[in-house]
Amino acid sequence: xxxxxxxxxxxxxxxxxxxxxxxxxxxxxxxxxxxxxxxxxxxxxxxxxxxxxxxxxxxxxxxxxxxxxxxxxxxxxxxxxxxxxxxxxxxxxxxxxxxxxxxxxxxxxxxxxxxxxxxxxxxxxxxxxxxxxxxxxxxxxxxxxxxxxxxxxxxxxxxxxxxxxxxxxxxxxxxxxxxxxxxxxxxxxxxxxxxxxxxxxxxxxxxxxxxxxxxxxxxxxxxxxxxxxxxxxxxxxxxxxxxxxxxxxxxxxxxxxxxxxxxxxxxxxxxxxxxxxxxxxxxxxxxxxxxxxxxxxxxxxxxxxxxxxxxxxxxxxxxxxxxxxxxxxxxxxxxxxxxxxxxxxxxxxxxxxxx
Length: 355
Hints:
Strand content: 25-35%
Largest sheet: 8 strands, antiparallel
């Protein structure tokens, strides 16, 4: 952002030079009018920059050489289960069966607006549909709890963003795996493993992330109670939309983490970096007062029933199309048969009349 402000200031100086360096001096009042105008214009640009400013929060970030990872009380991140640190990544699970591991921040995050960029890698010897199970990025009240939800506890409180690499619901053919999805839990909502989390998901997208030679990234932004998830997995350095949902209510003071799990099938699940940015978002006085009055204590999502209804309708669309095509074909066959019968009867009557 500083570059933008600097270029604006540089162009302002050039403009003043044009006014004063053509052999004639500018009138005193006009000069200060121009100065005031340029100063006001510069402040407008500065305000815009301020609204878009982001600050890396190192105490909530994880990157090479991973000096803040360890079991001591002074470390910022703590390992759990089968997770281990190497010079190149934090490996949550190796490509071996029945492993689970995680890494959790020790410091709760009290930011109102934030953005998390996750550099990860999923790779292994298993071929398509013979690998599993996936990894998860967390912002939850609980930390360091083993469990069945991608290596974390069920009935969690907070946000989970899952990179699911194995389809458990074999009958569902509409979804292509690996699949990225998000879920908000309030401590009493269970993740349905057999249905791949469909009953509680907020939305998602397919993401072919396994065994890629280029870097893969996951982007999670929470601003003005709006959750946005994007991915960069094509090696083009471009974010692709995955989920954008308003009305997501997440309390402050939760912990960031990442976890993974393997079962009969396995993969290496690696975290290369997790970088958290504090976003400076301008709010009106009225907005600040409303947020102070409406303090969030339990994670929730506005209009969750409408979201689930939309997902059920979307899930039925394939079946509806199938039966529509089926009945259309049966109708056509029925009409053809009737037509042939009528034509045969007409031909027989005509033949009788002729003879």
